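Design a sequence for this backbone.
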């Protein structure tokens, strides 16, 4: 069930009214959310509900066992059991074929031919998100950062909460779980603010992402047929496609939750206005980047280790694992590794710039934002490409002399003549709000505009959403595949 579908609108209206009709009965509210979440997920494939239930019940039990035990070795054994269950399920469905094929390719280098046994399995939607969410629960209990939850209904609702179930934000139990233990009443202000954020998320998804995807998909799927100038435009369009798509999903999820009295963490904060790679990851997919920081980078030693070499290794591992989390393909591994390379270049560059203070600070800041955007966009080629060879060929042609070719003629046969204009206007719209809300807690705030302008903004967003939703129909979110 997609957020941008008519089925979801009907589903949410029914759930919303039933939810607030029972505001005096917390147990019923949570039961309603749990059942609704299972319906929402099962709408895609009910068979994979068993995986969510297994993760929920196993981590609920193991979390309690860790919490009750005072024996350090026993607590560690329970934690390892939790990690084996969660990573075992994730690894089986997401990475089994990748490792089988990679092993076969590796030993073939030494002259051994094998026919790897591959599984014809479907990747369950959202498995990477809810698996990481439940893992953080048992890890935090093991670290004595929180106590185990004693209410199974509340815990299962926390794991399966439908707005953020299939694509995040990846919430920490310490933040989200206690909210299911408190009564939630209808709040007019939160409802309005949530509805505004849903509107902004739908705009980013339907108007920006889906229209950019129309061209980006054609260019990437037929990259051999286009000159470098078109390929440059293609990767830029993909950069805005994936941002509009994923941040749009997060905005909708956060907005829906606010309407229901639940607070979710901010997941995006104007990432394309970042001044360096480190700043980019403070702004892009914040719930995932902080997860890897707290549960991978810091346990490895983080930046507290004495050796600069060890610190560099920690950074490389964290970025590479983050890339691998996104998909079972070497392109994602390279994408993550590229970000670690950019991080080291940025660190060296920053040290050099401290000794040079000739240029105005605003000019340096603008230059840094542009360079960071170029680096991030270049890395998106590996993220989007079907294979390593596809990415290399794409880059080779993009950086060839054909980068100077006139791209205009190649777009005439792709779609309507109006669509490029709509994309440009939409991106300008996006840029204005990104700049004005660069350091805001939420990505859509128009309170600083006068009332007539606010009304005009809301109406224009709604009209564009309705027009392009009717034109394109509901299109899947990119991160459903992760």
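Sequence:
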């Amino acid at each position: 069930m997609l957020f941008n579908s008519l089925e979801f609108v009907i589903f949410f209206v029914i759930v919303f009214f039933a939810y607030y009709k029972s505001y005096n009965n917390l147990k019923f509210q949570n039961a309603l959310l749990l059942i609704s979440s299972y319906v929402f997920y099962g709408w895609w494939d009910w068979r994979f509900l068993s995986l969510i239930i297994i993760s929920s019940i196993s981590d609920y039990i193991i979390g309690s066992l860790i919490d009750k035990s005072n024996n350090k070795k026993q607590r560690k054994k329970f934690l390892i059991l939790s990690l084996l269950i969660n990573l075992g399920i994730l690894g089986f469905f997401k990475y089994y074929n990748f490792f089988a094929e990679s092993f076969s390719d590796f030993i073939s280098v030494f002259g051994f031919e094998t026919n790897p046994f591959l599984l014809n399995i479907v990747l369950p939607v959202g498995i990477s998100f809810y698996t990481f969410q439940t893992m953080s629960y048992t890890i935090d209990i093991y670290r004595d950062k929180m106590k185990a939850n004693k209410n199974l209904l509340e815990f299962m609702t926390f794991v399966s909460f439908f707005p953020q179930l299939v694509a995040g934000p990846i919430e920490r139990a310490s933040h989200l779980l206690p909210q299911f233990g408190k009564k939630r009443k209808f709040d007019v202000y939160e409802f309005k603010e949530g509805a505004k954020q849903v509107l902004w998320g739908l705009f980013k998804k339907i108007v920006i992402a889906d229209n950019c995807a129309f061209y980006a998909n054609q260019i990437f799927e037929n990259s051999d047929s286009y000159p470098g100038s078109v390929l440059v435009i293609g990767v830029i369009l993909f950069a805005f496609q994936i941002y509009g798509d994923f941040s749009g999903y997060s905005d909708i999820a956060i907005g829906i939750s606010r309407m229901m009295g639940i607070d979710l963490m901010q997941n995006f904060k104007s990432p394309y206005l970042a001044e360096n790679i480190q700043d980019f990851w403070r702004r892009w997919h914040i719930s995932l980047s902080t997860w890897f920081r707290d549960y991978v980078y810091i346990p490895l030693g983080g930046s507290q280790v004495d050796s600069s070499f060890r610190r560099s290794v920690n950074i490389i591992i964290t970025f590479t694992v983050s890339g691998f989390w996104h998909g079972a393909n070497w392109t994602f591994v390279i994408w993550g590794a590229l970000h670690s390379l950019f991080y080291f270049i940025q660190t060296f560059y920053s040290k050099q710039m401290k000794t040079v203070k000739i240029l105005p600070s605003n000019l340096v800041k603008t230059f840094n934002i542009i360079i960071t955007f170029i680096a991030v966009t270049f890395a998106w080629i590996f993220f989007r490409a079907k294979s390593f060879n596809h990415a290399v060929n794409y880059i080779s042609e993009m950086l060839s002399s054909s980068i100077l070719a006139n791209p205009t003629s190649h777009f005439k046969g792709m779609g309507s003549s109006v669509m490029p204009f709509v994309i440009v206007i939409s991106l300008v719209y996006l840029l204005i709000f990104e700049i004005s809300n660069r350091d805001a807690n939420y990505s859509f705030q128009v309170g600083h505009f006068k009332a007539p302008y606010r009304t005009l903004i809301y109406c224009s967003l709604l009209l564009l959403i309705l027009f392009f939703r009717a034109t394109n129909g509901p299109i899947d979110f990119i991160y459903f595949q992760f």
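The chain has a mean pLDDT of 88.
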